[in-house]
């Protein structure tokens, strides 16, 4: 692509960007694709021959855009804002065109010095103490004198300064490395004969449970221990909690060296108590206090919010992300330190090929992990100059007002509750009366699947909440009202569906219970009926009587139970035969005691298998042959031997009967 082609396609790209941002509201907020979908849309190997730019742009719209989550969409309310503005986009275009790698002052002086200056600009705008700035107030006066023609005036810099990092995670990690280096340096002076690895194993870092997960990851990479502390009822880490734990660790031989605090936590935008924590850290010589204000720090550009950073004078380092809430595109995280030499001494690696002859110049390669650095300060410079401090303050205040509007809408509905103190642009809400969190999870899932809004969950006081954050630069009250309308409508549907499901489950449970109760009643009725018939008709329970009664309709066996069964309890009674046929299985409903009262007493000991109606088992009993003369008296014996109604040998008249005879 030559200059003319770039000019042509560059204009087309600007038009495409403008069209995308102007019509973004017409797009679905989140895509409907599944993991791995793109490999089926584009080749898995790079093209061998050049392709036309028009074809590439066509694929951007038809293939790439369907899988994009539109963070600049006015219906996008997840996470925190992703900074974006036209001045920042144009500055990034220029930075990419210049394409310098500003790892040292000599590599690109403007890249280095503009970064120093704009970070001082922003540090002053948010109210940072002078110790965090590169140029003190006295230095600023000296610079003004130099501009008036006194070129020989010497400029004295302070010990502090700012630097641009890729993310807040990098800011916290490099500060933890610097704190570790300072602690090890001091301990080696006190214990020169102890190995550094042993000293490292004694170091302990601290943070709140509400701190970002990057603190834990940083401790893992730095090979140091991390103790995560419980915040108070307002999700704020307090000084008393920190002091107690640090003193306990010291008593156990551990060495506190780093404390990470947060102003504007990710879960609910809560604020740690920096004045209390700062005083505690002052009591420990080796402790480095870091303040992470990645999201809320941008709001300190408004004077009314600066009280939230009270105690910042105790901090050793401070960071905020202009690429979150200050209209600057990623990546542009700002880090300030009180003593830049403590930071750089932990990260200095100075090979010959990177050295230069400009003594005293700032080399930002010593301020972070990467060597290569883009010209990122350009976009922050463009944004600060295009909007001005007043324009950025107006933008921040507008977002906070919209968040307060949403909070009022939520509180106006008694089915919902707000669980955080809304100070910035984040509102954490949930449906009430949902101890299992099932309704709230279903509510969020349904909304996100619809593509009309996008939000994410969090935990506040161990309760599942839905985070609603104002993110779009040009968000309006209509956007907030629309979001609340979708949430309310979806909540009604979710609650109604859940009630229906609950009712169906209850009906199913009731039906099962009813069937079970009916079966119990039927069984009981049958047993009672059988008992009555049994008492009145001994043929029912006495198989011998049943067998001797030719007209009996009572079946004493089920022939279907066994193909070999022909006659239940059929026993060969012939006195002349030495062998007897094998008895068949029989159903029996009488207690076992009856079976042992002479019915199966047999000298020959023939085996009779008996199957019981209510037991899934078969038992075998020894049967005896009955002579014909015994059959006549069997009925009388069975009546006398009944286990349920045993009859007395002598009859005794009752008093009533005697009186009646009289």
UniProtKB/TrEMBL annotation:
GO CC annotation terms, alphabetical: cytoplasm
Cofactor annotation: pyridoxal 5'-phosphate
An individual GO BP term: carboxylic acid metabolic process
Basic and acidic residues: bias regions: 626-638
Modified residues (N6-(pyridoxal phosphate)lysine): 324
Alphabetized InterPro entries for the sequence: Aromatic_deC, PyrdxlP-dep_de-COase, PyrdxlP-dep_Trfase, PyrdxlP-dep_Trfase_major, PyrdxlP-dep_Trfase_small, Pyridoxal-P_BS
Domain of life of the organism encoding this protein: Eukaryota
Positions of region (Disordered): 546-568, 621-662
Compositionally biased residues, Polar residues: 651-662
Extent of the signal sequence: none
Transmembrane segments: none
Keywords, in A-Z order: Decarboxylase, Lyase, Pyridoxal phosphate
GO MF terms, alphabetically ordered: carboxy-lyase activity; pyridoxal phosphate binding
Sequence similarity: Belongs to the group II decarboxylase family.
UniProt xrefs under PANTHER family: GROUP II PYRIDOXAL-5-PHOSPHATE DECARBOXYLASE (PTHR11999), MIP05841P (PTHR11999:SF70)
Full protein name: Tyrosine decarboxylase
Organism of derivation: Aphis gossypii (Cotton aphid)
């Amino acid at each position: 692509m030559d200059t003319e082609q770039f000019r042509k396609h560059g204009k087309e790209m600007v038009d495409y960007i403008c069209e995308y941002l102007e019509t973004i509201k017409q797009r679905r907020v989140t895509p409907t694709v599944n993991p791995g979908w793109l490999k089926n849309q584009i080749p898995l190997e790079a093209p061998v021959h050049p392709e036309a730019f028009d074809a590439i742009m066509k694929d951007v719209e038809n293939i790439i855009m369907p899988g994009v989550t539109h963070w600049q969409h006015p219906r996008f309310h997840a996470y925190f804002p992703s900074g974006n503005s036209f001045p920042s986009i144009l500055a990034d275009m220029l930075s990419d065109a210049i394409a310098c790698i500003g790892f040292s002052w000599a590599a690109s002086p403007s890249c280095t010095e503009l970064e120093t200056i704009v970070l001082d600009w922003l540090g002053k705008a948010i109210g940072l103490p002078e110790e965090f700035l590169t140029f003190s107030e006295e230095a600023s006066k000296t610079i003004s004198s130099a501009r008036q023609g006194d070129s020989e005036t010497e400029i004295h810099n302070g010990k502090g300064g700012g630097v641009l990092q890729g993310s807040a995670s990098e800011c916290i990690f490099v500060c933890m490395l610097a704190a570790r280096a300072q602690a090890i340096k001091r301990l080696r002076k006190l214990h020169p004969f102890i190995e550094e690895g042993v000293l490292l194993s004694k170091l302990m870092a601290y943070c709140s449970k509400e701190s970002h997960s990057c603190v834990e990851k940083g401790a893992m990479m730095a090979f140091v221990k991390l103790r995560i502390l419980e915040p108070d009822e307002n999700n704020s880490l307090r000084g008393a909690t920190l002091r107690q734990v640090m003193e306990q660790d010291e008593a156990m031989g551990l060495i506190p060296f780093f404390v990470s605090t947060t102003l504007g936590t990710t879960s609910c935008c809560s604020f740690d108590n920096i004045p209390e924590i700062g005083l505690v850290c002052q009591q420990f010589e080796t402790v480095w206090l870091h303040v992470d204000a990645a999201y809320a720090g941008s709001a300190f550009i408004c004077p009314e919010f600066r009280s939230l950073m009270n105690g910042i004078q105790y901090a050793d380092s401070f960071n905020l992300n202009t690429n979150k809430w200050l209209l600057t595109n990623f990546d542009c995280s700002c880090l300030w330190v009180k003593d830049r030499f403590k930071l750089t001494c932990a990260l200095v690696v100075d090979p010959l090929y990177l050295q230069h002859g400009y003594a005293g110049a700032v080399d930002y390669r010593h301020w972070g992990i990467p060597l290569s650095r883009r010209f990122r300060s350009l976009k922050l410079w463009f944004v600060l100059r295009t909007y001005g401090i007043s324009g950025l303050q107006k933008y921040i205040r507008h977002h906070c007002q919209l968040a307060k509007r949403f909070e009022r809408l939520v509180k106006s509905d008694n089915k919902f509750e707000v669980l955080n103190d809304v100070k910035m642009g984040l509102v954490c809400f949930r449906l009430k009366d949902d101890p299992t969190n099932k309704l709230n999870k279903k509510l969020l899932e349904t909304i996100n699947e619809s593509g009309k809004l996008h939000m994410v969950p969090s935990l506040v006081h161990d309760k599942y909440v839905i985070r609603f954050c104002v993110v779009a630069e040009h968000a309006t009250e209509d956007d907030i009202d629309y979001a609340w309308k979708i949430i309310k409508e979806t909540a009604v549907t979710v609650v109604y569906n859940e009630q229906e499901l609950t009712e169906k489950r209850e009906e199913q449970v009731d039906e099962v219970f009813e069937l079970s109760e009916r079966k119990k009643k039927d069984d009981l009725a049958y047993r009672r009926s059988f008992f009555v018939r049994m008492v009145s008709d001994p043929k029912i329970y006495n198989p011998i009587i049943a067998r001797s009664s030719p007209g009996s309709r009572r079946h004493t066996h089920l022939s279907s139970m066994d193909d070999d069964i022909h006659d239940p309890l059929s026993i060969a009674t012939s006195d002349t035969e030495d062998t007897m046929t094998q008895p068949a299985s029989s159903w029996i409903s009488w207690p076992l005691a009856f079976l042992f009262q002479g019915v199966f007493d047999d000298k020959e000991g023939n085996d009779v298998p008996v199957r019981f109606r209510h037991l899934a088992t078969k038992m075998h009993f020894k049967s005896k042959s009955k002579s014909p003369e015994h059959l006549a008296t069997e009925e009388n014996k069975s009546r006398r031997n009944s286990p349920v109604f045993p009859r007395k040998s002598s009859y005794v008249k009752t008093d009533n009967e005697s009186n009646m005879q009289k």
